[in-house]
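Batch manifest, entry 17 of 40.
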Amino acid sequence: MTTDQPQTAIASDTRFILSDPSLPVLQCDKLLRELPGKRQVFSGDWGAHQVVAKLYSGARARRHWHREKRGSEALRQAEISSPDILYAGNLKDGRFLLIYQALPAAITALDHWQKCDNNAQRLTLLQQLIELVAKIHKAGLIQTDIHLNNFLLSHGTLYAIDGDGIRCYPALLHTRLYRKNLAMLLAQLPITAETLIRSAIPAYHDHHPQSQTDFTRQLDKELSRARRQRRLRYVAKCTRNCSEFVRRQSFSQLAIYRRDSFTTSLDSFLCNPDSFMEKGTLLKNGNSATVAKVSTPEGQWVIKRYNIKGFFHALKRGLRSTRAMVSWRNAHRLKISGIATPQAVALLEKRVGLWRRNCYYVAAWSNGINVAALEKVPEPQQESAASGLTTLFRQLVQLMIYHGDCKATNFLLNQEEPVIIDLDAMGECRLKCLYRLRYSKDRQRFLNNWPQNSPLYDYFDRQLP
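Output type: structure tokens
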């Protein structure tokens, strides 16, 4: 039987019969992951073993099955911690199957990072990750699809998984490949983890010695490139159909929203946005924008409608990216960078073909106070909040992201953590000379929120980059 047949829907509680009738039946109880028509990953039981099974279908099933098997075996031969393969073969119907021994109480490195209570725990995890990557590199291997979900922590031991992304090089890897691969992993950590990264890098040299000064200096450059590439890919991804986002476009409108955010409330908004806004509390009613706060069963939303003020304004804005689209992209630009901003829920553009008219941006409500009230905050909290704001600006400078409108009301303090709002003038630069011009305007506009020679003005003037 050929294996390029379409994959049919399979219930999670399913029995699979192997091609060898003498072997036990595979009993799967939970579908862990699915790439439609390509791969399904189950947890279940096989004889006396608790297992994770990968089932391959489609035209390239044999190729991916073989590559996964070869990569996992390469990890084991190099004595890299990796789950044991219990079976590599076919089902009775010819589809390719890999059965791994399940790791007890396994959790991905990403989930563990998010559950860490303090930086000491995060540093321990980061050192384990870097040590494991160093051992993989020393063995002449590289994980081409390196991310935090491809490492599992079980009873304190970190395991590498996903053999499909493992590549073996007959000669020694070039040092730059090491750096680029490590930078790809570190780029997935928030920009706030910069200090932890620097503290953990010696763990790489302990297990795979390099020219430390040059390696660390070059790694900083590779990390900056990897962050930018990852950020730009995610900004592009957030405007198209994928596992995380839905894009619905017709002649009269374009809607983009998070797949996990679609509810009856969101459907009502997409059908009649103006009527939906009228149910809420009006926060601003200007010529260029109308803002309303609306309560829904899913929580409170802020809806910002960007208005077309007249015929000439319509001509000016009609074929450009709308401010709602710019805000949507920038919300995800900040999210992927680990910088706080209210969760983007949806955007809606009213259109006539390609001609854009009124547009709407929906985000979660944030309860923070704006920075204009910073002078009224008790002094200990004021110092902490001011320090957080200067840290935020340093992070934006490091990422070469500018805000474009740094008035005090566009920065909220949520439990002393700064949150950025009003993202329709934000962007990022590739050229440092251009960014310096943009940032100097941001910096001066932010300082202008307070009278000259006031304590806060003097503090920010000294501390801001």
